[in-house]
């Protein structure tokens, strides 16, 4: 390009002249059109505007090159970080010692309570009897390899595919998230390493596994693993486990028994067949399927083994290790929690750990005594180690999730050690205790108030009968949510779930309250409103959900183990409080006021006979709230209640849940009779011994109190509402009613016969107050208790003789006054047709629905 100043030619694209240094103009990148023959000479330089446009053109981004560079960067970073982890692991790698010396080096682990005091010692003297591989059933050897490390006989001590997959996940999360351990690496971890779950420890596990694989044969490694692995019930090694579960030697194990034992290393407490046979059978099936997959047995053999009896015959092999620990229900749960966090049995029992927990020994003893004393009173002293009638309880600090005590049944004894409080396979019918979680709290969250009115009038037909049935077979008419929950009215609960939406209630209870509901529960329909669930829940799950209420609407995750410290003083595990917001503080306060009414010591006025709250006899002399629950047949009874400081959940019932319980000295085994007294004893004694001050439920801001609400309309009481139907209540600001209710209205009746409506020519009349007939009721429906306050349906017949009308008014009359109006002439059946002055009620078509089980208070 030519310099405009000195005229010398420069290399194309130069910015400055190499002869005189003048700035050169950038050539235009705009493609020029060829000149037409008639045009003049073409300009040899670009215009300034074209130069500017050319300089502003951006270069095209080459995304393929960007992706390649990013991939290279990630790989370099990954290898760099992996190298750093490997260096750290090598620097602190322990020396490989002989198996004999290692197996003799166990240290007791100690469990501490919430106050830092030791409460139990997990013995380092391991219940182990070594046996050679030749005396261990091939079934067990094959089962273990199939489920734990199917490439054991061919891999070099590690599985490269699993390692790459796990490494990628671990590096992304920058912590040990996914396992990839072979049997060799598991042996290395159990024998040589600490229980700290880190990337460095995973690297050490890999390195020591390589050393073991180099030093020992596959048969020797399998021999050491089978004699070392912890299999639950205090038994390390297959000999002790075979004796502990089946009273057999390892060589005599059947395929069914071998598959059961092979499934235990993953979580010995969880899959213990003596405690949780249902989950143990599920795990056994996984093992058998793995054996089929890798060619050890046929599908027919697997099916036969799964159906074969296990012949469980528990035997205490070593008295030192089979002893019952102090606070056994809690200690067993702590061991299970540690296993779920990745601690091996060897580490838990022989690792010299200091295990700090949330256990409160005083509360534990109070709860165990309350269970035993109440059950002995109701059903007599236990005559066997596994009594049919059982009870379980969980005590929680609702503000941080600490589980202070758990009682899995009547006095802990062998061989019965089934934890009925926390075992995931123990699923009990909730009865009415599900109502606050599935209907009432979701309704409040959706904008309902505690004074919202539902008509206690059945509208569903099931198998030719009206459904649902209230426990006392009484339908009351208009009911506020507050009163309906207090008396545990079934019909209102079903109406409410129908109104808010079955899907809405289901997902609220599942996702907010954390209840393990299933799609089968959803498909069961509206019956779940009163406990008609396909499975049910255990005491821990229900207690966790209810603990939301005394914690301002926040559900905390349960905490059993707060911290674990290894022998070197390093904290290798720690748990801290964390929760899920379920309700706003205002919504939660409304629920507390409603459940306080459940324990009202006075009959609830103006809603008919038998209107006692279900917890009327369960007061503890301080503010408390809760809910009862009973399923059909009284096989399950519940009480879940709380104070501002403490949450206690109690279940009582038939251990297997298959048949009705007999009546107690205080009546049928309902929630308030069978489970409620256990709750009451625990609360009263804990308050006294722990010196808990009396506290009221804190009222948040944004609340409004109104004292003139009609309990038949849920709105501001009109001038016609009788005084006994007017009550006060708290509302979330913005939800309080602002209109006047119209469920009461004046009506003229014949003075000489108040069962007839007056019209002109009938003689003297009086004006009385009538209750507007419920719109949900239709002719042919069952009798409604408050129909006695409806206006008469029969019109008087005018007299043919001339007569002077003498009106007589009684404006102060009310439906509850004897002079107001009489009950219908046929008390078992409501009037067949309404008067013209009364709004007609629509006929509601019956909805197809299946009648549920459950549904008592």
From TrEMBL:
InterPro entries from the UniProt entry: Beta-lactam/transpept-like, Glyco_trans_51, Glycosyltr_51/Transpeptidase, Lysozyme-like_dom_sf, PBP_transglycosylase, PCN-bd_Tpept, Zinc_ribbon_dom
Sequence segments annotated as region (Disordered): 25-56, 796-857
Matches recorded under SUPFAM superfamilies: beta-lactamase/transpeptidase-like, Lysozyme-like
Pfam families referenced in this protein's UniProt entry, alphabetically: Transgly, Transpeptidase, Zn_Ribbon_1
Membrane topology of this protein: Single-pass type II membrane protein
Positions of transmembrane segments: 66-87
Composition bias type Polar residues, residue spans: 44-53
Domain Penicillin-binding protein transpeptidase: 392-646
Keywords attached to this entry: Antibiotic resistance, Carboxypeptidase, Cell shape, Cell wall biogenesis/degradation, Glycosyltransferase, Hydrolase, Membrane, Multifunctional enzyme, Peptidoglycan synthesis, Protease, Signal-anchor, Transferase, Transmembrane, Transmembrane helix
Domain (Glycosyl transferase family) ranges: 117-291
Reaction equations catalysed: [GlcNAc-(1->4)-Mur2Ac(oyl-L-Ala-gamma-D-Glu-L-Lys-D-Ala-D-Ala)](n)-di-trans,octa-cis-undecaprenyl diphosphate + beta-D-GlcNAc-(1->4)-Mur2Ac(oyl-L-Ala-gamma-D-Glu-L-Lys-D-Ala-D-Ala)-di-trans,octa-cis-undecaprenyl diphosphate = [GlcNAc-(1->4)-Mur2Ac(oyl-L-Ala-gamma-D-Glu-L-Lys-D-Ala-D-Ala)](n+1)-di-trans,octa-cis-undecaprenyl diphosphate + di-trans,octa-cis-undecaprenyl diphosphate + H(+); Preferential cleavage: (Ac)2-L-Lys-D-Ala-|-D-Ala. Also transpeptidation of peptidyl-alanyl moieties that are N-acyl substituents of D-alanine
Ranges annotated as biased composition (Low complexity): 797-826, 846-857
Biased amino acid composition, Pro residues: 827-845
Subcellular location as annotated: Cell membrane
E.C. numbers: 2.4.99.28, 3.4.16.4
Protein origin, superkingdom: Bacteria
Annotated ranges, domain Zinc-ribbon: 3-24
Keyword hit for Hydrolase: yes
Job description of the protein: Cell wall formation. Synthesis of cross-linked peptidoglycan from the lipid intermediates. The enzyme has a penicillin-insensitive transglycosylase N-terminal domain (formation of linear glycan strands) and a penicillin-sensitive transpeptidase C-terminal domain (cross-linking of the peptide subunits).
Protein name (record): Penicillin-binding protein 1A
Phylogenetic placement of the source organism: Bacteria, Bacillati, Bacillota, Clostridia, Eubacteriales
